[in-house]
Amino acid sequence: MPAMKRKLNEHDVPEGSPTDNVPEEAPKESPKDTNETPASTFASFGLEPRLLRGIRDQRWSSPTLVQAKAIPLALEGKDILARSGTGTGKTAAYLLPILHQIVRRKQRETSALVLVPTKELALQVTKLAQALAAHCGQDVRVQNIAGKESDVVQRAKLADLPHIVVATPARASTNVNNGALSLKNLAHLVVDEGDLVMGYGFEEDLNNIAKTMPKGVQIFLMSATLNTELDTLKGLFCNDPVILALDDPEKNAQLVKQYVIPCGEDEKFLLIYAMFLLKLIKGKTIIFVGDVDRSYRVKLFLEQFGIKSCVLNSELPLTSRLHIVEEFNKNVYDILIASDETEILGTRKTEETETSKPRKKAKLSDKDSGVSRGIDFLNVSCVLNFDMPENYKSYFHRIGRTARAGKSGTAISFLIPKEKYRRHKPTTFAGCEKDEEVLKKIEKHQKEGQKIENYGFDMKRLEPFRYRFADALRAVTKIAIREARIKELRQELLKSEKLSRYFEENPAALSHLRHDQNLNHPARIQAHLKHVPDYLLPGGRKNTQDLGFVGMDKTRPDRFKKGKGKRIVRNRQGKIDPLKTFNARGRGKK
Q: Where is each Helicase ATP-binding domain found (predicted)?
């Protein structure tokens, strides 16, 4: 029996919305950039009681704006295109209506397909779906096929007919082609982070899925931006969706205090040293750098002063990246150094090798993905742009990692003026050449009342620290960076591959894995740099005792006694050996 594509009541008769606060003819666009959440609770949506218990387990008191707007419309069976940033609850906004329909339908079939651009996002969606359906037993089964399992393993997973399948478009398309994934009973299709999905070059896979998909499927298109690529996606799957333009990443910046510090290339390291050692930055911090090499340079530099940090980059195995994010969210690490290249959390390169058919080159000119998008980081106090991003969109996505859920946050950006670019070759980074141009675009796109202020950092007060910072920076050579990358990669591969089965059986052992170990080989760690002498602190030492003048060669009472200060060495014949005899006073006979 084919699955019904729209919500039915217990007598298999189509019914209206379970909520009364949404008009029958919903507007095609929500009120422009409104922040007022409609007064509602999850119970008012008419969701299944078992799902409400799952919601209580998550400790969600009330729906977010996107949930309050999207869930009633989704329960009516409408197609939805929603713009909402990471951390606003859009995953639950589409999962709850889908789970509600699956529980009510009570049929063993694959009725929902969730497409995401990265494996990390796939795991995040899977965990949330399983948590919300924890009290539903076997009525809801979720499978994630975005991982690196073999075709045999994935075929076995899909043969069990899970109700919800979470995958990247490439994986889903491959399994549709080989017959492992059947879409004939599909009732719901979700494309999460739709602009990234198109940006990663999944267009061919999406076309293949659209051709195989039956008619009448409910569509959810979720994205952080509404752009032309999303229009293409909308035309591919749905003609007349309800558009919810709820959350603008640039608008999220209103709760973020934004600062910029113009400085020289080497002064970036001096500033970051002073900020962390003097505790000018408090709380959890994400440091964004331009590439993988820069991430290890910053980590090794901070290690010189005993400052612990962990690195998140595209070289690390998937399981290590997921564990780092999870531990950072649990406050195990305070400093996360993220290399925000386009593929740090995207796995486009891997996906291309996993499918045999050729595909178009991914459009990665708009480098606003990576750590700045998709993954949800919790309770971040400060975002530090060690290297400025290449465009203003990436800037707003980066600073969107802080000031979440109504909390305030700080964003500090280091800016290299043109006259200071390439003045210190050991620390030069090519991506900083257009910092001033990017800053102008960022200022142009700021919302009313928001601006980037000059931090007003007095660099003269850091002069006493220069010799210490320069000593540490010299120790971080290119060889040290290369060795550090190899060392950490070897460690993480060992943890992720050889011990993966052990950790599945003993999950508590994961707590003993740390990602902020010293990677000091062959960089020389200098223990004295950990401590800041009081005389170097701004204002100097306050409780200093005046000892007066102390002479360099204070006269001892016995200094001029006869024989003192002389060392006489005689040879075998008893004669004084002039070459081995030393007169400390420097006068008289030798």
A: 71-244
